[in-house]
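Colleagues,

For the teaching module next term, I've prepared a clean inverse folding example: a structure given as tokens, and then the sequence designed for it. I'd like students to try predicting residues themselves before seeing the answer, so please don't circulate the second half yet.
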């Protein structure tokens, strides 16, 4: 009888251990995803510094001004209201370091790498609040819902997944952050 009680207790401890490990893994992945989302919010805000609108020093500029100088904002403005994959910076230039929408398990950019190996993927959506002057920018970080740290076969960090309005919650975890940006009036 004592062996039966011990076996039942051991089975429950083992199942609690599995649940605890899964909870810890989910918490770590969510923390990494939050860090990636905050990083992309900062990148969007830096990108917005390149965007100028008509102002006292440049009264002849035509709205939306120099939004093309902000590569991510320009791409998002071109498909306003839709989710995009911000892949404008995959190779470094003289003005910008290489940035990527794909990240590895530690939250590092997968620069100049195949995005099919990404474990986290960033999508961006721009919605005009005041036409060509003030925009809401949403950043979404997706990662597959599973225990493995291996990327899904064929990858998921692509324009097809980015275009989905609401990814399947049984397939992906997600984190959303929002900011507002405006053109520099000077």
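(Answer key — instructors only)
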């Amino acid at each position: 009888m004592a062996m039966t009680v011990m076996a039942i207790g051991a089975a429950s401890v083992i199942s609690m251990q599995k649940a605890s490990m899964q909870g810890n893994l989910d918490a770590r992945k969510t923390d990494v995803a939050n860090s990636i989302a905050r990083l992309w919010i900062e990148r969007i805000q830096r990108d917005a510094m390149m965007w100028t609108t008509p102002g006292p020093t440049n009264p002849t500029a035509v709205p939306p001004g120099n939004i093309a100088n902000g590569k991510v904002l320009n791409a998002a403005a071109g498909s306003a209201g839709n989710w995009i994959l911000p892949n404008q910076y995959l190779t470094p230039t003289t003005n910008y370091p290489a940035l990527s929408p794909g990240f590895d398990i530690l939250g590092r950019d997968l620069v100049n790498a195949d995005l099919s190996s990404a474990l986290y993927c960033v999508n961006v959506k721009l919605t005009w609040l005041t036409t060509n002057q003030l925009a809401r920018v949403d950043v979404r970080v997706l990662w597959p819902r599973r225990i493995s740290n291996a990327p899904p076969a064929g990858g998921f960090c692509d324009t097809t997944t980015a275009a989905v309005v609401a990814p399947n919650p049984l397939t992906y975890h997600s984190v959303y952050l929002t900011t507002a940006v405006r053109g520099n009036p000077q």
